[in-house]
Amino acid sequence: MPSSHATAADQISYADLYARWEQGNWRATEIDFTRDREDWANQFTDLDRRSALWTYTLFFHGEDSVADNLSPFIDAAPLEEQKYFLATQQVDEARHAVLFARFLKEVAGASADVGSSLEETRASLTWGFRKVFDRLDRMTAELRRDHSKPKLAQAITLYHLVIEASLAQPGQHFIEEGLARRELLPGFRSGIANVARDEQRHIAFGVKMIADLVREDSECEPAIADLLREVLPFTTAVFVPPGWDERYVTAFGSTLEEVFAQGAEAIEGRLRAAGLDPTSMRLGPNGPVTPNPEATAMLFDGLRRQIDPSVAPGAKIQWDFSDAEPWHLRIDNGASAVAQGRVEDADLTFHCRLADWVELAAGRTEPWRALLTGKVRPSGSLRMLMRAPKLFG
After folding, report:
1. 301 and 158 share a domain?
2. Which comes out higher in pLDDT, residue 374 or 16?
3. How confident is residue 111, by pLDDT bands cut at 50, 70 and 90?
């Protein structure tokens, strides 16, 4: 093919991916949890157990869902080689669900049968998780009726890039690295390492298939963009811990910001590997903006007037611009103020160019897209970040 149309995905074949599946087979039923039970009872604190149960429950339900929903993907795949690989992936997803079900039953004391265990833990699912996987359920129904390449491209994007690359893979790294750091749960840790290897193979398949579909049908790229605009706003709410207690993550040595950043980097990298440019999917114009002190002051005065101070009374928000002087906002009912310069102990800081913030404030860039592409990089309180949409209207 012409070099201008070559992508990173062209370096692998469907036959190679199938061969890797045969070479990497493992048995979820043979993992020894003896030491894991000892660690769970004697090395884990109460917070550790609550954190682990919450995290593993999300994975348990996620693996069960993707195993149930993969059959229409096999039917819709146009090539036999693609169907064969997707059949191996369905086996993988069932095996992953068995791993989590075994751990929850044999180590954490969940119900004996999978159905009861799923029902017992359903209340732990986050709002973002429900939104993403409800969309997968609907996508599966759509794919049963519509085997077109644009619909298949949307389905592969949702399954392999959003759920597996941007959600599951960072979560697997969080689990594996947190347990390895403290040398805990060796049996479960070995299982998660196997899950991660399977997911790498699945994601590689998704990237290759998207590259092929986009090359074959010009309607696939806009269909993918539509799907991403719909579902990505929900993804940051998937891993929000109960009661906004960030200790559920920091107890195992990570921060929520790190997990979110890995997810954003993962999906952007996979889109590029498939030959897609995330920045070309932007909505509306995005011309250059020249920093101007008077215009900037007007921008922040307008921001001060439009906020709802009752959403975050007493909060301090910092803008750390790379192309202009920093600004900050102090929120106080009846006396909120903005000023140029830095503020101590900011609850939330936005790191970006002033030009990109102007595009965001003007509605020419959606907030989730700015976060996904790294044009706006927040740091500080996750609780404050999740309040931002209400705060700024």
Report:
1. no
2. 16
3. confident
